[in-house]
Amino acid sequence: MKLKEKCVNIASRIRSTTVPEALQKLFLSWLLVSIFFLAKGGTSFTDRDFFLGINLPVFLSATVILFAVLLIFKDKRITAWLMLSETLVYSVLAIVGFSNFGFAVGLCVVSGIVIYYTDTDLIKLKLHRSVPWVFMGIMAALLTAFIGTLACLYYKNHWTPNYDFGLFSQMFEYMKDTGLPLTTCERDRLLDHFAVHFSPIYYLILPVYIVFPNPCTLQIVQVFIVASGAMPLLLLCKHKGLSNTSCCAFSLIYALYPCFGGGCLYYLHENNFLPSLLLWFLYFYERGKTVPKILFMVLILLIKEDAALYVIVIALYYILSQKKLLSNLAYLVIPVVYFIVVTSILANYGDGVMTSRYDNYIYDQSGSLLTAVIAVIKNPVYVISQAFTEQKLIFILKMLIPICFLPVLTRKPARYILLIPFLLVNLMTNYKYQYDITYHYCFGSGSILIFLSVINYADLKKPKLLIYSFFCSLIVFTGLYNPRNKYFDYYEKQAVERETIDRALQLVPKDESVAASTFLTANLYDHKELYQLETTKHETKYYVVDMRYTTEEVNINTYLHDDYETVFFEKDIIGVFMLKDDP
Fold it and tell me: What is the tens place of the pLDDT at every residue in 421-471?
């Protein structure tokens, strides 16, 4: 009797299923079977063999069986959870199999449609107040571990170029020994790095380097510095009254934000300090805490001469949004004066200010940034022509899709002021590295975009936007950085090559001058007189030639004659040569 009642109940549930519910469960069944075959397939799903490996009767039968099972369940929460989880798993598996940004955009579009038609109110989570802090710590640790490990592998495998890691590795060794940020391989002469960029902020890393004096320390610390920005972001979320679930979501989005991982994988830069310090500055600005605001303004200014731009823009934003000029005036005037003074010193006594990155606006070839400002005033439509090229539109998508375009979803005009760094630093220039998320020029604008995402979401409070942002962050991050996992395999496969290079480099005395190929300078960081072989004009005692690749500047035959003694030579890997003394 009980069995009969159960069967009647099941039949009743199936009959009561509406057409939309049936279609939804049919979609879930088909998707679950697709996930199974996608995970099971030994070949890429873009290959023809993938289709041949799927038995259609089995595929359809499994779909029908799952469909029948799902019809029995009437709890809509289960359906909602399955809808989101299956879509996410399928998308991630797909982007792992075909890591292409255009494909990632397509997956984000499809995911958005699924999220739109899913009743997300059914899957609300109630988390303890401690969970966001634990989750934030875990995400920051995972980011540091993953990116930091990859960065160390690059160094260990001799893949880190002089620009921008060899020069900083040597600089920190000089700082450890002399207290001064000196390098010989940055401008082919003994030079204080602050003559190129005024970045006293590096001294915050020095105590750690003194304890652990190795370039890998710099690789790990620079990722940790970026990851630490998750703490002020969480405090900002709390201040804006976001739920514990939303706080966790933003911690995850921060860790997965593609420009942060990409910038860290291009080695060490002063810009790595921007995300954490800017977010602390913004947090204390929101809280109205004067002393911490001043402290973090000073720290930001010490990052780099152009970091003043971010403080100026933030001050302008609060002047307009709070309609309080006097209380915000200092945060506007101080960085302006600081920028003028420091750039003047660099122009007159240092290596000059890098105005060439805005040559597309300096129409009179004067090299003056004032000319660029006048150009914008005279011809604003020219700015649009330079800022919205096809390549830069792709860059914009990479920056905004992972955060669901939240930075521009506001009706408060003052907030658009905060988009100025994104426009000025990344879009107006024709210097290609500044609109590439795999370089360090996105740290400042990216952290402000994250800030805008939080404050705009706090106004909107539409959970679907945050869910969608989480999906997009994971999809885009996986698509861009999953191929980097191959470097773990490369590290194992190239063990012999790596050990050969290590043996060769040990033969170069530390007290002798040396010119080394760009990918080997970082590994000779503790040599006081070190130059990049491809560009140096110096004659040195030792020459280290990387033969894993060829360049026009370096010809191995130059060193294979009587003027040089071959210290070490392994064909297609490395050669170490010593200049013979004149008889």
Answer: 999 999 999 999 999 999 999 999 999 999 999 999 999 988 899 999 999
Q: Which string of DSSP letters, residue by residue, matches 331-355?
A: HHHHHHHHHHHHHHHHHHHSS---G
Q: How far apart are CA 43 and CA 97, in angstroms?
A: 9
d(CA 67, CA 261): 41
407 Cβ partners below 8 Å, 6+ apart? 400, 418, 419, 449, 452, 453, 456
pLDDT at 47: 86
| Residues forming beta bridges with residue 516, ordered by sequence position | 532, 544
Residue 98, judged by CB atoms within 10 A of its CB (0-12, 13-18, 19+), counts as middle
User: Where residue 223 falls among pLDDT bands split at 50, 70, 90?
Assistant: very high
Query: Residue 505: what pLDDT?
Result: 96
Residue 349 predicted with pLDDT over 90: no
CB 272 within 8 A of CB 447: no
Q: Name 566's bridge partners.
A: 577
Q: Return the DSSP state at 582.
A: P
Q: Can you tell me the mean pLDDT for 81-99?
A: 92
DSSP string, 369-431: HHHHHHHHHH-HHHHHHHHS-HHHHHHHHHHHGGGTTGGG--S-GGGGGGGHHIIIIIIS---
d(CA 88, CA 574): 46
As a whole number of angstroms, the distance between CA 303 and CA 424 comes to: 18
Q: Which residues of 148-162 are buried (b: 16+ CB within 10 A; e: fewer)?
A: bbbbbbbbbbbbbbb
Query: What's the CA gap between 384 and 389, in Å, rounded?
Result: 9
Calpha distance 425→435 (Å, rounded): 8
User: Does an H or E element contain 256, and which?
Assistant: helix 244-256
Query: What pLDDT is attached to residue 4?
Result: 59
Whether the model clears a pTM of 0.90, i.e. scores above it, the answer is: yes
In this predicted structure, what is the pLDDT of residue 123? 78
- Provide the edge-to-edge strand list for the sheet that holds 574-579: 530-532, 514-516, 542-546, 574-579, 564-570
Distance (Å) of CA 317 to CA 299, 307, 335, 456: 20, 16, 15, 14
Q: How far apart are CA 41 and CA 35, in angstroms?
A: 10
